[in-house]
Amino acid sequence: MNGLWTALSLDPAVHRCVTFVGGGGKTSTMYALAQACRLAGKTVVITTTTHIMPHPRLPLTDSAGALPALLAAHGIATLGARQNGKLTGTGEIGMALAAADVVLVEGDGARLHPLKAPADHEPVIPPESQAVVAVAGLDALGQPIGAICHRPQQVCALLGQEMDHLITTADVALLLSHPLGGRKYVTESMAFRCLLNKADDARRRQAGKEIASLLARQQIPCGVTYFTEEERGGACWF
């Protein structure tokens, strides 16, 4: 199985429904894990509880009843309804799990920001989820909250800082692990993991190791990775 599954200490045979929250690379991560499953011969459903851009080349249905035929033909499918150019979820996670080996769910949005704190209504984590992955982009480090974060007011409240505060490694670890941050609505039955994206130079890789060490003190496994420009968004894999 792909190294990213291993880096996240996840097993697709056990963690069959994984929900992604946070910012800085959720979609790329979701498709990277989907590709690894396909290479291993597993069937995959991509879906959302929020809004995502449709993949340009994956088959799409707005009814889980159509999934068995699509998966038999293609091995992977997207479940969602078109709305204003994006896809919304259909809520049929249980049916998707009955049809596919693995179901990957995007559970909130970040509007392309690398770091965020959730609003009151976020994230929407399906109860069927066996794992939740909170994602952050390392390009947030050294940048002011007001300029780099999605929902900066919530970030300020969680960190006890002002808008001009420059994001540190400790801040990222706190936002990811906080029960009102990346860990919000994660139940005891769900495996919780973190992923630090955009570790594409030595400085960011070192910062990623520091954050991962801080999370390890809380027994939270954390992967550190980056995606090439071609890989971002997952279009190149399917």
Give a brief outline of the structure.
It holds the Pfam family YqeC. The chain has helices spanning 3-7, 26-39, 67-74, 93-99, 145-148, 152-159, 169-177, 202-216; strands at 17-22, 44-48, 51-52, 60-61, 76-79, 81-83, 86-88, 102-106, 115-116, 131-137, 149-150, 191-197, 222-224. By secondary structure, the chain is of the alpha/beta class.
Describe the structure.
The chain is of the alpha/beta class. The chain has helices at residues 3-7, 26-39, 67-74, 93-99, 145-148, 152-159, 169-177, 202-216, and strands at residues 17-22, 44-48, 51-52, 60-61, 76-79, 81-83, 86-88, 102-106, 115-116, 131-137, 149-150, 191-197, 222-224. An eight-stranded parallel beta sheet has the order 4-5-2-8-1-10-12-13, with helices on both faces. It has a three-stranded antiparallel beta sheet with strand order 3-7-6, with no helix packed on it. Strands 9-11 form a two-stranded parallel sheet. It comes from Candidatus Flavonifractor merdipullorum. This is Selenium-dependent hydroxylase accessory protein YqeC. It holds the Pfam family YqeC. InterPro entries: YqeC.
